[in-house]
């Protein structure tokens, strides 16, 4: 199968402030042991006053462009996957476009929650398959700490802030690049993971909703059940499409939501631990930023080698779920 876009540069950005489980013990009724056992998270990064989604996205973008040795002027398109933008209007992507000086690029945001980076990767791949000369910047960037109810111990322990970016171009080597992407959704389950407030149905100045509905609310058991099943199915879909088996994979980079979800997926695919990348303990769930952040660290650790078969897989609110199979 002919490959599509190839990732030629990666970059990451994280707030300097670290919020540990011990810190959370002072904020809400929880403990380091409780959080670690149930989630696998030990700490997360949280923005300080003055730090924004676009600031993180710009920092990650500049690093990715430098690694790719591509000028911002060469970019044709910028896609920012996020559900925590700086503003409802304009899009975070146009703020990035301006701040990095990508004057020739179109720009838009994409909202698919935790599956957002793979969704955006898929869109970029289709553009590049149509014209292999295109150069596209894909960013997953979130400031989830502003959408967390710090009085809800079931959700506030889970999330962190950060950004990851990838520069994509057409491959000059048909043995490298994206083999296929697979996108799914089930809107009938939207109520299991929500932020209801601040949309047009429930404006921010209205009094129709209780305060907690303006923050992330989740029915954890149901989300877990659907996440494991959907991620296994979409992972196998990518493998089957390309006549591959789990044994062929060099690395799986899953969305970093919960160690129990990741472990359940690993067991269902029959993979050893060393073939599944995990950095959840350091950053928590960063939604659309989690997979690009993981890719940056995997590359830095030497776990992404030329020719490796790499599987990306995610699940998020909506519900949405997605996978991408790449030949690195």
The CATH homologous superfamily of the largest domain is called Thiolase/Chalcone synthase
**Structure summary, number of beta strands:** 13
- How far is the first residue's CA from the last residue's CA? 15 Å
| Radius of gyration computed on alpha carbons | 19 Å
Low-confidence runs of at least 5 consecutive residues: none
Query: Main β-sheet, in a few words?
Result: 5 strands, mixed
The SSE order reads EEHHEHEHEHEEEEEHEHHHEE
The gross shape turns out to be: globular
Q: What is the CATH first-level class name of the largest domain?
A: Alpha Beta
How would you characterize this protein structure?
The protein is globular and about 55 Å long. The chain is an alpha/beta fold. 31% of the residues lie in helices and 23% in strands. It folds into two domains: 5-174, Peroxisomal Thiolase, Chain A, domain 1 (3-Layer(aba) Sandwich), CATH 3.40.47; 178-327, Thiolase/Chalcone synthase (Peroxisomal Thiolase, Chain A, domain 1). The chain has helices spanning 21-25, 32-39, 53-68, 92-100, 116-130, 220-241, 259-269, 280-283, 290-300, and strands at 5-13, 18-20, 43-45, 77-81, 106-110, 135-143, 161-170, 177-185, 193-194, 217-218, 251-254, 309-316, 320-327. The chain is built from nine helices and 13 strands. The mean pLDDT is 94. The longest helix is centred in the last third of the chain and has 22 residues, at 220-241. Helix 6 packs parallel to helix 7 (259-269). The two termini are 15 Å apart. Strands 1-7-6-4-5 form a five-stranded mixed beta sheet, with helices on both faces. Strand 12 and strand 13 (320-327) form a beta hairpin.
